[in-house]
Design a protein that fits this description.
466 residues, alpha+beta, Aminoglycoside 3'-phosphotransferase, Chain: A, domain 2, three-stranded antiparallel beta sheet, 18 helices, 9% strand, Aminoglycoside_PTrfase
């Protein structure tokens, strides 16, 4: 089949962010005082911010909970009154821990002392690049998702501020109002402590988990993905790109563009054997390098883009198959930028191709013994890819010529993304796995035969391209 031939040789939040991002709820001094008073009463110390800084705040809640549970609310209220006369607000930025997060949320008004005392409050750590907490609190208020940088690293601080800016655009700019329904509800951004707070999306799982559980690609879901991207893929005039609302965005090309243009140097100080094999397969193929260079030249920074579209960054309600209602949300906007919307679209297609290649059983591989043997056939996914494309181009209101040119560009971007995916799959590998090599082969064949890739791999015939 033709599709088989394709696998074989042939920023930071503005300084004036208070004008854009809503301020936190006014400090509740009684809440602050209750916690501080607990420490004062037990230890007989004055409430002061001494040289140890946040050390006291890390251990303080443990003692306070004991004291409040023993004294009850009436005495706690009196303790609050006593302590309010001596409480000083710390000025240092703080890193959240399991000890301090309850104090922080209580202080900001997102948590009640009652929920702590009666055991409804729980904090579940779920960190990745940042420190993330899932907070359960009062039943009538719903759960929270709290994200903070793990260290005072300027790069991470700027990317978290970039994410907060995207939430602000959805909340405050009419042009992006439709995006709001595809995001977790925004609550606050604390620019001093670099903390983003949103409501948690209840009953949701990642789209990756959804695909692996359901082993299907519903057309309704493809439609929602197109609607989601269309809600923020709005052409931004260059004069507007310099406005305060957008000045945090760096307008940089994707990392893989820079990586490929410089000959694929090591991301870190050294390359593994598998990485060296991957780089040699690409750089020693002059045709491959020439075609990659041609793809990079097509980049046009015209729109807000997410920059890290992948199934793991989509949340979907777990009961979607039974209800027929697909509540899709997009998270992790840290790499958002002013860029080429075709890059996000290419990521949608690349995700399907990853499932096809990486979950296809290899020769002699047992379906019962291998995770990579779910066997997602391309024919199963192609109707969803067509549905996504048809919905997306209708929302973008492109001319026939624009749609044709952009689809060709998207194929090239998809090939670049497959290279990046190949790199991600060989981490910790001593030699390149066969699935990873097939990702590279598909990338090269898509660059060599883009028209064939459009209809034999993506499943988009001429009749539905426009």
């Amino acid at each position: 089949m033709l599709q088989n031939r394709m696998l074989h040789s042939s920023g930071s939040v503005p300084d004036h962010q208070d004008a854009y991002l809503p301020n936190h709820r006014a400090n509740d001094r009684s809440h602050r005082a209750i916690w501080t008073a607990g420490w004062c009463r037990i230890h007989g110390w004055s409430a002061r911010h001494d040289a140890d800084g946040w050390l006291l705040w890390h251990i303080q809640p443990v003692y306070v909970l004991i004291r409040l549970a023993a004294t009850g609310y009436s005495e706690a209220t009196q303790m609050a009154t006593d302590a309010s006369r001596c409480f000083l607000t710390p000025t240092q930025a703080m890193l959240l821990t399991g000890f301090t997060i309850a104090h922080y949320l209580l202080d900001k008004g997102y948590l009640s002392s009652e929920s702590i005392l009666d055991g409804r409050f729980t904090a579940h750590l779920a960190s990745s690049r940042n420190t993330n907490y899932l907070i359960n609190r009062d039943a009538n208020k719903g759960s929270l998702f709290v994200k903070q940088v793990q260290a005072w690293d300027q790069e991470k601080i700027e990317t978290l501020r970039t994410e907060a800016t995207c939430y602000w655009l959805a909340e405050n700019e009419a042009e992006y109002a439709q995006l709001r329904k595809f995001l977790p509800p925004y609550l606050a951004f604390d620019s001093q402590n670099h903390i983003l707070i949103t409501e948690a999306v209840q009953g949701a799982i990642s789209l990756n988990d959804f695909y692996l559980q359901q082993r299907s690609f519903p057309l309704q879901l493809a439609t929602r993905q197109a609607e989601l991207l269309g809600s923020f893929h709005k052409t931004i005039a260059r004069s507007v790109q310099d406005a305060p609302s957008f000045r945090l965005f760096r307008k940089q090309e994707p990392v893989v563009f820079l990586w490929s243009s410089s000959g694929f140097p090591a991301y870190s100080g050294h390359q593994s054997q598998a990485e060296r094999q991957m780089v040699q397969l690409i750089t020693k193929n002059e045709d491959y390098m020439t075609r990659l260079s041609a793809v990079r030249e097509k980049w046009e920074a015209t729109s807000l883009i997410h920059g890290d579209i992948k199934p793991a960054n989509f949340l979907i309600n777990q009961d979607a198959p039974s209800t027929g209602h697909y509540d899709l949300r997009l998270i992790d906007w840290e790499t958002a930028d002013i860029g080429d919307p075709c890059w996000d679209v290419a990521a949608i297609f690349q995700s399907y191709l990853f499932y096809w290649i990486y979950h296809e059983p290899l020769q002699g591989q047992s379906a019962q013994n291998s995770y990579a043997s779910y066997g997602f056939s391309l024919e199963t996914m192609q109707p969803s890819m067509r549905q996504f494309w048809q919905t997306y181009i209708r929302l973008m209101d492109w001319t026939a010529e624009e749609a044709e040119a952009n689809l060709s560009k998207i194929v090239g971007y998809c090939a670049l993304k497959l290279i990046h995916t190949c790199y991600e799959t060989i981490q910790q590998a001593s030699t390149m796995p066969l699935h990873s090599a097939r990702l590279l082969q598909l990338s090269l064949n898509m660059l060599r035969s883009p028209d064939e890739a459009i209809w034999s791999v993506l499943g988009i015939p001429n009749a539905v391209r426009l």
